Every structure is written in structure tokens, then in C-alpha cells.
């Protein structure tokens, strides 16, 4: 599936990477991922995804990138990035594995939040990259 195109079906056979299609920075990251990382996954903007079918809320999808497995397990933020890298295999898998280590996982989460919260100021970012105060995953701060 082309980045940003079409809604991911609820009966997906591959994992789905859900990103913010209105954010230029996020879209550039997805373009890099599709070109260089090449995970065996569908990639869809949350604005065009079947969120109910994926078992996620718009609030959570707006808050962080999501990795949804066919059985419905959802990982977000830095953990989703690690899952993408692990799924891609090759030279990317060791980096994904490192991101799952307990100490590194905490640092990766903090770094992800800083980037996500300031993505409108990063290269490729636009005013639409700003994350509204949606209260975090599931509406909780």
C-alpha cells in the first residue's frame, strides 16, 4: 500500500503502520521508511485508516505513530518504531532490538516524545504538524 493511500482493511494480513498524514515531517519519515527500511507492512495515514477496524482511537493516532499487528496488538511511539525496524530485518533489525532494551527503551520513548511534540519545527514540518492537546493515548494525559 502506498503511504497515505487508502484505508487499511480491518482483516489485514500484515502489520499496519499508522502515521499522521497531515504532518509533513511524519510524511517524510514514512517516505524514508518505505524507500530505505522497507518493512513488510501496510502504511496508512490515520486520517484515511479504518481506525475502528484497527482497534485504535483518533486521539491515540494523533498522539503517536502506531504499529498494529494482524491479531490487533498495538504499539505506539518509539516502540512502534522498534517494531518497524525489527519487521524490516537486515541491517535495521539490530537497531530495532536495541530500542527494545529496558534502559534504551526509556530514552527512546523520551526522545520520541520530544520529536513528536516539536515536529512542526523540524525539517519538513508545517503548521499542520502541531499536535492538538488530545490528552495522549486514549484521552489520558
From TrEMBL:
InterPro entries: DCC1-like. Pfam families: DCC1-like. GO terms for molecular function: protein-disulfide reductase activity. It comes from the Bacteria. This is DUF393 domain-containing protein. It comes from Streptantibioticus silvisoli.
Amino acid at each position: 500500500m502506498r503511504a497515505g493511500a487508502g484505508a487499511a482493511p480491518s482483516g489485514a494480513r500484515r502489520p499496519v503502520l499508522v502515521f499522521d498524514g497531515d504532518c509533513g515531517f511524519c510524511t517524510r519519515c514514512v517516505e524514508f521508511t518505505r524507500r530505505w527500511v522497507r518493512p513488510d507492512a501496510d502504511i496508512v495515514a490515520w486520517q484515511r485508516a479504518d481506525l475502528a477496524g484497527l482497534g485504535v482511537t483518533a486521539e491515540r493516532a494523533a498522539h503517536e505513530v502506531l504499529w498494529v499487528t494482524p491479531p490487533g496488538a498495538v504499539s505506539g511511539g518509539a516502540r512502534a518504531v522498534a517494531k518497524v525496524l525489527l519487521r524490516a530485518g537486515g541491517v535495521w533489525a539490530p537497531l530495532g532490538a536495541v530500542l527494545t532494551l529496558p534502559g534504551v527503551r526509556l530514552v527512546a520513548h523520551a526522545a520520541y516524545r520530544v520529536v513528536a511534540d516539536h515536529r512542526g519545527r523540524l525539517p519538513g514540518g508545517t503548521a499542520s504538524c502541531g499536535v492538538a492537546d488530545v490528552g495522549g493515548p486514549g484521552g489520558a494525559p
